[in-house]
Specification:
This protein has 241 residues and is an alpha/beta fold. It has a single domain, classed as Glycerol-3-phosphate (1)-acyltransferase. The chain has eight helices and seven strands; from the N terminus they run αββαβαααβαβαββα. Strands 1-7-6-2-5-3-4 form a seven-stranded mixed β-sheet, with helices on both faces.
């Protein structure tokens, strides 16, 4: 059965509500239009789902290439079938979830990223990251929201890891605002042990005030990237309290 996008979002929100009560703060900080880099802390696999379901505008996600098939599609079926959490559901419910996941993938706009790409020759890596940057900047200047997790990987402790400079570099190249965000309370949410919990987890998704291009450091070199990265990290820390 085909379900409309908005109905899919409502359904997935209600499904997630069994495990997490999500409250959004600062939704008014998200501009109604225009490109922006959305940065957020990263402590759990559920981060992307929460942002996808509760951000008022569609997002473009940068995701590790391991999550994609050779044809460029997300490996949703492999992810569900290979996850202990999903295997705890009865087979008929799991089948319905797989069907919904196939439709839900239509809502996920993701760009694969090969982390630590080296290539065969030294120039291959530079060419790869240059093309990736050009693709991201193109989406940003077209008025889209690109979601990036600047830590580069999940923090299992819940504490912020040092931010990498890619998000800042994209904002500097595209001259678009950076919107710092923070998700709290969902660390370990995707763990199989979640099914043993008796009550939903309280989760807060905070959308902070924009860092506007006029607040960016001068220039676009390494020093400017470093300074803007420090500012972005500080804003996310403020949101996390």
């Amino acid at each position: 059965m085909q379900i409309k996008r908005q109905d899919r979002i409502v359904f997935l929100r209600s499904l997630l509500a069994n495990f997490a009560s999500v409250r959004v703060e600062g939704a008014a900080n998200l501009p109604a239009s225009g490109g922006a880099v959305i940065v957020c802390n990263h402590t759990d696999l559920s981060d992307g789902l929460i942002q996808l379901l509760y951000t008022p505008r569609p997002l473009v996600f940068l995701a590790k290439s391991e999550l994609f098939e050779s044809g460029g599609n997300l490996r949703i079926s492999d992810i569900i079938e290979g996850n202990e959490f999903f295997r705890q559901f009865p087979s008929d419910i799991l089948a319905d979830m797989m069907n919904l996941a196939g439709q839900f993938i239509q809502d996920v706009d993701a760009m694969p990223v090969i982390r630590g790409y080296r290539g065969v020759h030294r120039r291959d890596a530079a060419a790869y990251y240059r093309e990736l940057a050009e693709s991201v900047v193109k989406r940003l200047t077209a008025g889209e929201l690109v979601a990036i997790y600047p830590e580069g990987r999940r923090s299992t402790s819940g504490e912020l890891l040092p931010f990498k400079g890619f998000a800042a570099r994209m904002a500097l190249l595209a001259r678009v605002r950076v919107i710092p965000c923070c998700i709290q309370g969902n660390t370990g949410l995707a763990s199989p042990r979640l099914m043993e919990k008796n009550s939903p987890r309280s989760v807060i998704y905070k959308i902070g005030q924009s860092i506007l291009p006029e607040e960016f450091p001068e220039g676009g070199g390494k020093y400017a990237v470093k300074r803007l990265t420090q500012k972005i990290e500080a804003r996310v820390k403020e949101l996390s309290g």
